[in-house]
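anyone else get weird line breaks when pasting these?? whatever heres mine. first is seq + tokens for prot A
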Amino acid sequence: MTTKAKKAPFFYGEENVIDIYLVAGQSNAVGYTNIVDKNAAYEFALELKKGFSNVLFAGRLRWDSGDYYTAQDYAWRTTKLGLGAGGGEKMGPEAGMAKALSEFYNETSGKTAGIIKYGHGGTSLLTKVTDTTGPSNKYGTWVPPTYAQEKLGLRYGDYKASMTGALYREFLEVIKDCLFSLRSIGYTNVNIKGLYWMQGENDRSEPDEYAVAFRYFASDIRRDVARIVRAMTAGDDRGAAEMPIVVGTISQTQNLEYPRAESVNLEFIAMQKRLPDSVSNCYVVDNSQYAISRYDENTGKVNTDGLGSDQWHWNQADQLEIGFNVGREFLSAGGE
């Protein structure tokens, strides 16, 4: 009788460790912020020109056309300006995050961080029925499996075969592929340091149900990322099972397309700020103060007036500061 050899773990030992930070959500996570002044961004952090040497980036993003930004098929690069929704002229929170993280991850400390980002604009954590005609939820929703089963009545097999939760499932695949590709650049082990969740604009009219869905999401994403990492480390989840989740609030003035829109936003933001009361190791970065638009009573239309990149997305200076706040929150949550 022959005994099948035990498969060696993909990651092993403690040499060449990289700390991983996840970013996911909809368009303000993807990065739809227009880069309007590169010199101003380089004044914020000169490293954004060539990239932070000890803060790496990989990921896969969707935008409304349905195209992918593949980050060279999960190839890792230094984090710099232009890692948003395609073309190099847009940015997301990773730019500001890199500056904050570089206070701990730098050549002096010898420590390295990696940011894995995945998202798609205009998508929902709640929606079961997929919009197949427009960009919103066209490629699936973020609905996690336990929520789909217990609240929507979807058995796991049906869930996997549907567009419900397709973004959630693809996020897990992106994480797995990006982690696998780390070995090719010399990293032999990982720590999962947390998730920045920037989503909610599409669900802002249903704050109570969102709070329920988020509790399922937090539990499921920790469990599923931990499963991925355990399979690579022969059983050690490297912090994934209890990883910090940093929630970014939506803007108080996001898309003020009708007179009551700001009140709707404020109700949703208040719910987001209460999420740490029911979800352990959860933190909130208050993005509500960064103005995006205003409601023009004279025309009855939303007006950006130079505030946001458009009526949904923050401008360059605000996005840089938001990302920096997120990075600082991660360092604080991790005790760095």
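and prot B, same format (seq, then tokens)
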Amino acid sequence: MGYKIIRKKVLSPTVKEFEIVAPLVARRAQPGQFVVLRVDADGERIPLTIADYDRQRGTVVIIVQELGAGTKKLGRLEQGEELADFAGPMGNPTHLHNLGKVVVIGGGVGIAAIWPIVRGMKQAGNHVTTIIGAKTESLLILVDELAGYSDELVVATDDGSRGVQGFVTTALQAIIDRGQAIDQVLAVGPAIMMKTVADLTRKYNIKTIVSLNPIMVDGTGMCGACRVSVGGATRFACADGPEFDAHQVDFDLLLSRLAMYRQRERDDVEKFEHEGGCKVHE
């Protein structure tokens, strides 16, 4: 049995949103968790953070950025088509408690991952400041949705096309400089972004949580590709996380491991494009 796509929305040229019929996953899904899917029987396993879920409708929303061959293939699916596999929810959910004043940061497609977290943090009674960042305004997603559950929403773009010109850390530094108390920061996005957030908050002794979903491959811990050093101990992002204490993560090791796969990813994309973006279902 396949998993039907009942809605597709193009958020930007390379970012697509899908609503998938998966009642068993929707029944147990929590903010911070992820699914592992395959486009077809021969496809690679793709771990994606759950962006939203509707238990009554039995659907799960995922947002995918087309980077590698697998995500490009996924992005070309249309409403009415089906995925071969859609397993989950996996990973440990975000701890949603009334902590006081929290800052939730999303960079790039990581904005999709913070949407249910922001909503959950607000519903738990927190004062929520949300910071989202992208290279340019056209790549921002879920701005209105996040604003609806944020006491303050700050937008940062690299080129200054919307909000603060600079990175998410530029906006975070401004909040710190104005003397606002922060009980916890939670960041999701590219690994280098999470590292810079951790480096900044460490100086002020602000508790910081990061989601290491960008380094996951298999989603079960069996492949070992997502192993990371946390507090000097080896952990697996998919099985032990995906959320960890940012100040305990060895980001230098993490970034070096990510670099190991870049050439393979480029080769796969070139092959996919050379073959004309092979048909999803042969």
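btw re prot B: DSSP finds nine helices and 16 strands in the chain. The first helix runs from residue 23 to 28.
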